[in-house]
Amino acid sequence: MHVLVVHNRYNSAQPSGENNVVDQEVELLRTAGHRVGVFERRSDDIAARSLPGKVAVPFLVPWNPAVRKELAARLRAERPDVVHVHNVFPLLSPAVLAACADAGVPAVATLHNYTQVCPPGTLQREGRPCTECVGATPLPAVRHGCYRGSRLATVPLAVGLVANRRRWWSGVERFFCISAAQRDVLVRSGMPAERLAVKHNFVPEPAARRAGPGEHLLYLGRLAEAKGVRLLMAAWDEIAASGGVGVPLVVAGTGPLEREVTAWAAGRDDVRYVGLYDPEQCRRALARSVAVVAPSTWLEAFGLVVVEAMAAGVPAVAAGHGAFVELVEDGKTGLLHGPGDAASLAACLRRIAAQPDRNEEMGRAARRRYEQGFSPAVGLERLLEGYRTAIAGRSALARDGDTPHGQGGWGQ
Predict the structure, then answer these.
(1) For residue range 126-157, what is the model confidence (pLDDT) as tens digits?
(2) Which CATH superfamily is domain 216-373 in?
């Protein structure tokens, strides 16, 4: 199969699970013998633009006509079987879907977050879950400045969401949702259930698995409010005040709360802030963990670090909402704490560290869960199934002489 992957890469200064997923899927397909091309833009390149070029970026978010022309020409020249769209913000835009239509190539799209129904894609405002824009116009997002706390910065996202609803529906044969929890939200918003398939992200087989009880608890991810970092600090302070759990907390990552985390960890024996780990350091840290901690306060569409832990035979302590509910079987492959509840998180951390034998049993169960649902073999089969469905759908339309999904978008 010949596949062209379309992706706007996130800034390399911040860890991006989405970038990792795209790279891993490309490698998976190529290893299996498929021909894979990549059409991409990089957010890193914005910094090198001239001042007028930087000023123009927000205007390209809803629609980038130059991308449409460039991609359509490449599709006509290469004739791939299918285009796989990932992130299009901020430099690609949904113009990539028009390019696919221009060239007559079917498209699938992975929905890595909630940008189809929420301008910033987080379903969160001021640290709390929010669904005010779901199934409605995104005016509340603009009013509250939901993207980076700025009304002005939110406007291009809101405009793009409204202007391109019809384009997404008419231009995509198959949407991949990365969890059933995400799919449920999108179906409730009015997106067509029959076009939304659940395809969990896969995780490559790790070079190392845990041997023994582990040496530390591990938070691995972006240092941001939505990821539950402040919640974790409050829970850990409660644990420390009662004597600790016998192992330190390792915090790895970077983000807007880095200074706060650095100051909090300074001079403590029970906390180690280690900055941003490279991939190999991440793998080693996971394999030495008692458990990974995923205390997100927002409704995660997936939870890559949880599945990476499963692959290494490590249980997780995760917030009991969003995708974590389907990834973590409470009491069997890990523990779920009350979302936003520091005391509940502290209790789960104490529990998972206090029973080494039970912990190791959970780790083995987590590894079995990985093999059954998140291995490369499973990931490849689901990916190809989605491609074949998209190709067959477009072929049927061509035979019938119909235009793609002509009734337009959801929520209208």
Answers:
(1) 877 889 999 889 999 999 999 989 999 999 99
(2) Glycogen Phosphorylase B; (3.40.50.2000)
- The residue length of the chain stands at 412
Sign of CA dihedral 113, 116, 119, 125: negative
Side-by-side strand order, sheet with 2-9: 35-42, 2-9, 82-85, 107-111, 174-177, 196-198
For residue 395, name the pLDDT band (cuts at 50, 70, 90): low
Across 377-384, average pLDDT: 96
**How would you class 289 by CB atoms within 10 Å of its CB: exposed for 0-12, middle for 13-18, buried for 19 or more?**
buried
pTM score, two decimals? 0.87
For residue 156, the Cα-to-chain-centroid distance in whole angstroms is 21
Tell me which residue of 159, 113, 114, 169 sits closest to 137, measured CA to CA: 159
Residue 168 CB partners (closer than 8 Å, separation 6+): 94, 97, 109, 116, 409
Q: What is the CATH number of domain 2-202+377-400?
A: 3.40.50.2000
